[in-house]
Design a protein that fits this description.
The chain is of the alpha+beta class. It has four domains: 145 residues, no CATH class; 73 residues, no CATH class; 97 residues, Signal transduction histidine kinase, dimerisation/phosphotransfer (DHp) domain (Helix Hairpins, Orthogonal Bundle); 153 residues, Heat Shock Protein 90 (2-Layer Sandwich). A hairpin with a 3-residue loop joins strand 1 and strand 2. Helix 11 packs across helix 15 and helix 13 packs antiparallel against helix 15. It is elongated, with a radius of gyration of 51 Å. The protein starts with a helix and ends in a 7-residue tail after the last strand.
């Protein structure tokens, strides 16, 4: 897939997923707002039920003579001054007045018997006619809302009615007048007056009472938002899980697409490199064979030996290339079997240096040894350990722009031995250091391909060392060389 198509595909997928997430968040927000509206409606219904119950209870008490919400004061131009009020916890009335005894003697006898309401008193005392005629003034003195409300009973009613509507949130209540001043409020709620007014739900108390001031019952829920969130916790949790899964799958898919694209590019590069690497020795062998078929060449024994040696060298080169590819494929499939024996790392290093010394001298370089480990014996596979050391030295030679200088250090560790391979090559950037051990990966060098290889060497090195329960590290800086370090335990323990 071309890069442009891939980018368009990713852009469309990102837009779709972002739209899906935005839509999900929009519906969650809508659901929350509907919950808020439903909550406010239910609270309002519950408070109106509370107001109705309180008013009904007071009406029953008045009908039974147990309470009276007001006193009636009647005064008339020096002739009469009567106050009619209810006794506490009694059905009788007390009247204090200066009246004409000839007209109102019967009134006092009936008043003492009790059970007469205020309108009856006014009518029978003859005051009703005077009131209607304007001879006297009437002043109705209502009880305060604090005198009429039992806060304990009110708290119980509010809690009960809220539960009837499925609301079990903590609440605070108070009673305010029409000017938004508190009339009934506990000491602990004094600091929440602003919240009662701005965020609380309200309903009017005693809406049918014509002679009392307008008062409102206000209820405020300190943790309303948290309560609503908890009430829809299942929906929120499910939405959150779905969003996380969608985002994870999307990011995983995009990452997989990029990795596949990168792997495809690496494989294409590998095929191109391998084709070039294989064509060179094949072409050389073909030319040598043609030359050897020339009758003139056959007469020269020296020329024949030269071409035979050339064919032999190119044949070995082909064998090494094929072996590297097969070796990596076998290792990738987990089929590599180690033949564990005692291995002297110092002897292996000396052997590799002798074999590779010709290449170093061709580039006018040198290999310096610092074999300081007191005990270089480990348990491992001699062949693979040799290949590891060869690859690390060979990399230092290939990636040196000037005369290569390779320094090899060995040192003892607690349960093993460490070997450092330090070179003066081109170095590796920090970004590429994390990738150099990946199979088929080669550090990009633009259009310069003067260094041959398949990108299999360091992947093989890491695999072999880890198979021996060891580790490999790299420290490098561009233009200042690299240092590869392998740590191998002395005692091999087979993986379970």
């Amino acid at each position: 897939m071309k890069l442009l198509k891939l980018q368009i595909l990713i852009a469309l997928s990102t837009f779709s997923v972002a739209g899906l997430i935005a839509l999900q968040l929009y519906w969650v927000n809508n659901t929350f707002q509907l919950r808020e509206q439903n909550f406010a409606t239910n609270v309002s219904k519950a408070l109106h039920r509370v107001a109705d119950i309180i008013e009904l209870e007071e009406a029953k008490k008045i009908a039974n003579g147990a309470a009276n919400p007001a006193s009636v004061r009647v005064s008339g131009r020096g002739k009469k001054n009567i106050v009619i009020k209810s006794r506490d916890k009694s059905s009788n009335y007390v009247a204090n007045a200066k009246l004409d005894e000839s007209r109102d003697s019967a009134f006092y006898s009936k008043l003492g018997d009790g059970g007469i309401d205020q309108s009856t008193i006014l009518k029978q005392s003859g005051l009703l006619d005077d009131i209607m005629g304007g001879a006297v003034d009437v002043d109705i003195v209502a009880k305060t809302i604090a005198e009429r409300i039992d806060t304990t009973r009110l708290d119980s009613l509010i809690s009960s009615e809220l539960e009837n509507y499925g609301i079990k949130a903590d609440f605070k209540f108070a009673i305010f007048d029409k000017m938004r001043s508190p009339e009934v409020i506990s000491e602990e709620n004094q600091e929440y007056i602003e919240q009662f007014v701005s965020d609380g739900c309200r309903c009017q108390l005693f809406p049918n009472d014509a002679y009392s001031d307008i008062n409102y019952l206000r209820v405020w829920f300190p943790n309303q938002r948290g309560y609503l969130v908890r009430s829809m916790w299942t929906n929120l949790a499910l939405s959150g899980v779905l969003l996380i899964v969608i985002m994870f799958l999307f990011s995983f898919s995009i990452g997989t697409i990029y990795r596949q694209k990168k792997l495809s590019d690496i494989k294409n590069d590998f095929i191109n490199n391998m084709t070039h690497e294989l064509k060179t020795p094949i072409a050389t062998i073909s030319l040598a064979c043609e030359a050897m078929n020339d009758p003139d060449m056959q007469k020269s024994q020296r020329a024949m030996q030269t071409y035979i040696g050339m064919i032999n060298e190119e044949n070995k080169r082909l064998g090494v290339l094929v072996e590297n590819v097969l070796r990596t494929a076998i290792f990738e499939q987990g089929e590599m079997q180690l033949r564990i024996n005692k291995v002297n790392l110092h002897e292996v290093i000396d052997q590799v240096i002798r074999n590779i010394e010709i290449q170093v001298k061709k580039k006018k370089g040198q290999i310096i040894k610092h074999l300081d480990a007191s005990n270089p014996i480990i348990e491992g596979d001699h062949l693979h350990i040799t290949n590891v050391i060869y690859n690390l030295i060979d990399n230092g030679i290939k990636y040196s722009e000037t005369e290569p200088t390779i320094e090899i250090f060995t040192r003892d560790e607690l349960n093993g031995i460490a070997v450092d391979f330090k070179d003066n090559g081109i170095g590796i950037s920090r970004e590429n250091q994390r990738k150099i051990f990946d199979k088929l990966y080669r550090v990009p060098t633009g259009n310069v391909h003067n260094v041959k290889g398949f990108g299999l060497g360091l992947s093989y090195v890491k695999g072999v060392i880890e198979k021996h329960n060891g580790t490999v590290e790299v420290e490098s800086e561009v233009k200042k060389g690299s240092t590869f370090t392998i740590h191998i335990p002395r005692k091999y323990e087979k993986e379970s």
